[in-house]
Specification:
Layout: H1 6-9, E1 37-41, E2 53-54, E3 58-63, E4 66-71, E5 76-80, E6 89-99, E7 104-114, E8 117-123, E9 128-135, E10 138-141, E11 148-149, E12 160-167, E13 170-175, E14 178-184, E15 192-199, E16 205-215
């Protein structure tokens, strides 16, 4: 069972940021109906504004199939944001683990203020999920005492569609068209959006994000 160690042990994080917009190609918007699209990127070209980063312990950058976040340290996070500023958003991605332990975290960010303040909507490759608020550098679970578990989440290296809802003081996490968690929090009312991944006790998680879409509710 996932324990609530995320707050106490993940006190360090890599900060990766960028800016820009890349048009989305392909039929990835079929379920968005007529919602206004605020930002979208299928990572098909390396011009979407996501700043790349690489060293011997972490990586964020474009690959042939999407955008990759890799971390070879336990209890560590990396993330990337495109340098935007939104109030109310629905943020979509399709993500899968391509290597590393199933005991991991990956998902979406909204209302990002800086590396010390944001909301994170995450799942793991062994079926757990959570919404975190990072405030003044401290991570806290919202709405749960420990990470929840759901059979809806595809395991191991299978892809999951993740949706983060940030609308007013309502925050929700949906995975594969199923709402897993909804909470109320008004700490942050606007900010950037982005991608995030991290390790728990074992290093080496490698996550591929296939696309990234932000729509207005």
């Amino acid at each position: 069972m996932k324990k609530f160690l995320f707050v106490s042990v993940l006190m360090m994080a890599m900060f990766i940021t960028g800016c820009g917009i890349q048009p989305l190609t392909g039929d990835a918007l079929t379920r968005l109906d007529d919602s206004p699209i605020l930002f979208m990127d299928d990572f098909n070209k390396q011009t979407g504004g996501w700043q790349t980063y690489a060293d011997r312990l972490s990586y964020a950058g474009y690959t042939q199939d999407g955008f990759r976040l890799w971390i070879d340290m336990p209890h560590f996070l990396v993330w990337s944001v495109p340098g935007l500023n939104f109030k109310d958003t629905h943020v979509y991605t399709l993500a899968q683990k391509v290597a590393g332990p199933d005991d991991n975290l990956f998902g979406l960010i909204c209302r990002y203020q800086n590396k010390q303040n944001y909301y994170a909507f995450v799942i793991s490759s062994d079926g757990y999920y959570a919404i975190y608020r990072r405030q003044a550098g401290v991570l806290n679970l919202l709405g749960l005492s420990q990470m929840g578990f759901s059979e809806v989440i595809q395991r191991s290296g299978q892809a999951n569609e993740i949706l983060a809802v940030c609308q007013g003081d309502q925050l929700a996490l949906l995975v594969n068209d199923t709402k897993l968690l909804q909470v109320t929090d008004d700490t942050f009312d606007r900010g950037d959006v982005g991608l995030i991944a991290g390790n728990m006790s074992k290093p080496g998680v490698d996550v591929l994000f296939k696309y990234f879409i932000v729509v207005k509710p």
